[in-house]
Amino acid sequence: MFLLTQPTPALIEERVAAARHLTVDGPGCLALPHGLKTGPFPSGFAHDSSRSLLGQGHDAFLAARRAFEQWAFFGLGWVRVANPQALIAPGQVVAVQAHTLGLWSLNLSRITEVVNTGELFGFIYSTTAMHVEQGEERFLIEFDAATGNVWYEVEAVSRPRSRLARLGYPVARRFQHRFARGSHRRMKSVLSGGL
């Protein structure tokens, strides 16, 4: 899962094809639209949740939705969706490429749930065995018709899978938090015309 060089397009395509046949192994703790389900939380998993105000009005919601469909919220430089042609649809495999501490990783998850209404747009994806972590993540844009506010939420439940991720768990957690902060900044930038 960790590589010394950037994954080639051929390798990305090969891994995405292989991941289509794998089952997902997230703990099933998250649901759309509200996030963490009630009930016992699985041992060993960390829970992270963040929410930010992106803008005002239905046009801002539509712009945020377009940005989601282009995977802009992953366009952080050190992390990106390596198969950006993937649709936000149940069953789609998403390949997230990251470059951290001189190593590359290609992490494969599958979208398990999607919401798409006039006021909500988002999805949950769950990891496959081809991911350095085990867990699931929820990404949601919400238009509050009463206030006109457009909100962005990122929520994750995860634990390290690979030996390297377990050994570097504190560092991995810092990168998870860095991703969430960067994703919120990226979405705000996109809506202010920075795409």
Question: What topology does this entry show?
Answer:
Elements: E1 2-3, H1 9-19, E2 30-31, E3 35-36, E4 46-56, H2 58-69, E5 79-81, E6 93-100, E7 103-116, E8 120-127, E9 133-143, E10 149-160, H3 163-167, H4 169-194
Antiparallel strand pairs: 1-7, 2-3, 4-10, 5-6, 6-7, 7-8, 8-9, 9-10
In short:
28% of the residues lie in helices and 37% in strands. With 195 residues, it is of the alpha+beta class. A hairpin with a 2-residue loop joins strand 6 (93-100) and strand 7.
Question: How would you sum up this structure, described in words?
Answer:
The protein is an alpha+beta fold and 195 residues long. It has one domain: Alpha-D-Glucose-1,6-Bisphosphate, Chain A, domain 4. It has four helices and ten strands. It has helices at 9-19, 58-69, 163-167, 169-194; strands spanning 2-3, 30-31, 35-36, 46-56, 79-81, 93-100, 103-116, 120-127, 133-143, 149-160. The strands form two sheets. Strands 1, 4, 5, 6, 7, 8, 9 and 10 form an eight-stranded antiparallel beta sheet that branches. The chain has a two-stranded antiparallel sheet with strand order 2-3. A hairpin with a 5-residue loop joins strand 9 and strand 10. The two termini are 30 Å apart.
Q: What is the percentage of strand-forming residues?
A: 35-45%
CATH topology: Alpha-D-Glucose-1,6-Bisphosphate, Chain A, domain 4
Q: In the CATH hierarchy, what is the class?
A: Alpha Beta
Count of individual helical segments: 4
Largest sheet: 8 strands, antiparallel
Order of helices and strands: EHEEEHEEEEEEHH
| Protein structure class | alpha+beta
Multimeric state: single chain
Helicity, in percent? 25-40%
CATH second-level architecture: 2-Layer Sandwich
What overall form do the CA principal axes indicate?
A: globular
Mean pLDDT: 94
